[in-house]
Amino acid sequence: MEQRREFIDACMAKAASISELCHRFGISRKTGYKWLARFMSDCELVDRSRRPKHSPRAVAAELEDAIVAARKGRPTWGPRKLRASLLRANPDADLPSVSTFALIFQRNGLITPRRRRRRVPRSSTPFAHADAPNAVWCIDFKGDFLVGRRRCYPLTVTDAYSRYLLACVALGNTRTAGVKRVLEQVFRTFGLPKVIRSDNGSPFASVHGPGGLSELSAWWHKLGIRHERIEPGKPQQNGRHERLHLTLKLDVHLGCSSRRRQQRAFDGFRHDYNNVRPHEALGQTPPAEFYERSFVSLPDPPWGRDFAYPDHFELVRVSRTGRLRWNGSGTFLSTVLRHQLLGLDWQKAGHWRVSFGSLLLGELRRRSRSLTFTRTEEKPRPQNP
Predict the structure, then answer these.
(1) What is the SS3 assignment for 375?
(2) Which residue has the higher pLDDT, 83 or 1?
(3) Which CATH fold would you assign to the domain 136-289?
């Protein structure tokens, strides 16, 4: 505005021609003449609104009030569903488009913005095909419900090929320690699978770990088990396991007086599901006739051994607090990898690639006396036998 006033003052004083003044102020002659004409007619220099004076296709105020009232009556209905309902009730009504409905909701404060959530990075490897027993196991929690005075979280593990229910355990929470105890017993009984498929929730994955690693999936990686994560909001990618949960809900009373009684109910269901109940996808045959124990046994120690890295790798162990110290400097990595042995592959001066076995975690850079760690998407890299 100050420059516009100076331009008008210079024009009124006739200090130079309009062309010279426009060149001096860095504007076109069209803009200069527009400012001058606006000042001479209305004595104003502010920008005028570009909103049209007439909007023939604007929604009438009465119609907008009706849409707002309908939305308040159905606060959980979106613009598409609400428009279809109003059109069904008023077939001859000339209603605006779905996008206009959404704009009406927004300008009347009828939309609650969703909170942005940190999501686990997507798995970069394709899903394995369950072509044999123990090729793919599926794991998940069947929600939670009240048992006595405490919550119960059923943990279920199935073999994707035979639909065999490997475990159905009533846990008191979803923490890593309890899930790990259950899986260790399952591994001792049935051996190790090639792949475990899960959703992106805790404790199977973590938004804080590089590449979505959690303490549980890091343990699986050390045992040679590949972890597959379905895409967020797509439970159909683990559809066989979700179908088991529906059968569990229909056949078992959820909400016994104690967790011990609930576990007895789960044990009875597991025996019946595996050995008695015919499965349509298996030709009306129980899953026990298709399942075989894995030939890969749980190693000793059960938490897995440190990875063997190529000879040119530098080795460093993550501290108890999740920090990585290297050459007198340190940086925070992740608590999910505490006590784990990592390999550093030197690229150039002050630049290393950080690997956890065959999994590339990110890059380590040294600047002055400080270290910085940058995560990357999970990328399998070859490992020396």
Answers:
(1) strand
(2) 83
(3) Nucleotidyltransferase; domain 5 (3.30.420)
